[in-house]
Amino acid sequence: MPQLKRKLLILGGTKEAASLAQQAVDKFGPQLEVITSLAGRTKFPKPLPGEVHIGGFGGSQGLADYISHNSIDMLIDATHPFAAQISAHAAQACTQTNTPRLTFCRPKWQQTEADTWHRFKTFEEAAKALPKLSKRPFLTVGKQGAEHFSTNSVGCYFILRLLEEPAAPLPFKNYEVVIGKPPFSAEDEIVLFKKHQADALVTKESGGKTTEGKILAARQLGLPVIVIERPKMPDGEKVGSVEGCLAWANQCNS
Ligand code: NAP
C-alpha cells in the first residue's frame, strides 16, 4: 500500500526555518507536504519551497483550528527566540489537538573572558541601566525593541540599526539610523562601530551565525555589550540544528 502523504507545518520567519523548508522538501519529496507560515511583517519575503501561509492564525485557538482543518500531522516551531507569543500559542494548540511539536532552539552566543557583557531580563531594565554604561550605544534590537530605550535611556545618543527605513521619525531625542540586513561580518561591523564612534553594543540574545559579527566586533574593540536575555520558551522537545529537525520529522513520518 502506498504510504499516506503527511503534512508538516513550520512556523517560520527565520533563516533556519527557510533552510528547514528547503531541506525537508528535498529529503522527503512527495511523502511530505511542507507548509511554512510567516507572520507577514516583511513586505517582500524571499520565495520558499512548499506551501506558504501568510498572516496570523488568530491566537492559539485559531492555530488549533488551522491544524485540525488542514490535517497537520506535525509542527516545528522555528520562529525567532524572541517571538514568544507564537511559540506559546503553538504549544497550546498542539496540546489541544494532540499534534507532535518540536522547537528549533537557535544556539546562543558564548561569552568569553575577553567580553564585558551586562545581562538584563527585560528591555526596560536594560534601557534604564544604559545611560550609566554608554553615551553612544549601537542599538540592534529592532524598531519595537528600540521604543523601550526612547523613554528610559535619557542622555544617550543612539545609533539605531534597522532593516528598513522607518516610515515616520522615531521618538528619540538624539539619534541616527543605519540601515542594514544580515548577514554581517565582524570586519564590516568593526568598520561601522568605528565610523559611528559607538561606545557600546545593545543586542537581544538572538544567537546564531548571521548576526554574530557584532559580538565578535565588540570583543575585538573592547566594547561593552548590553544583552537582553531570551524569553522563556515553552516546555517540550528542542533541537539546536536544522539536521535535528529533519531527524525528528523523519521519525514522525515513519
Ligand atoms: P510574536 O510576538 O511571537 O507573535 C505575535 C503574533 O504574530 C502571533 O500571536 C501570531 O498572530 C503572529 N505570528 C508570529 N509569528 C508567526 C508565524 N511564523 N506565522 C504566523 N503568524 C505568526 O512574534 P514577533 O516577535 O512579532 O515575530 C514575528 C515573526 O518575525 C516571527 O515569525 C519570527 O520568527 C520573526 N522574527 C522575529 C524577530 C524578533 O526579534 N521578535 C526577529 C526576526 C524574525 P496570531 O495570534 O494571530 O496567530
Descriptive notes:
The protein is elongated, with a radius of gyration of 20 Å. It is α/β, with parallel strands linked by helices. 31% of the residues are buried. It has 2 domains: 6-106 and 233-253, Rossmann fold, CATH 3.40.50.720; 117-228, Rossmann fold. The longest helix is centred in the first third of the chain and has 14 residues, at 15-28. It is 36% helix and 21% strand. The chain starts with 5 loop residues before the first strand and ends with a helix. The mean pLDDT is 95. It contains 8 helices and 12 strands. α3 links the parallel β4 and β5. α1 (15-28) packs across α8, α2 (59-69) packs across α3 (84-97) and α6 packs across α7 (213-221). The chain has a 6-stranded parallel β-sheet, sandwiched between helices. Bound molecules: NADP nicotinamide-adenine-dinucleotide phosphate.
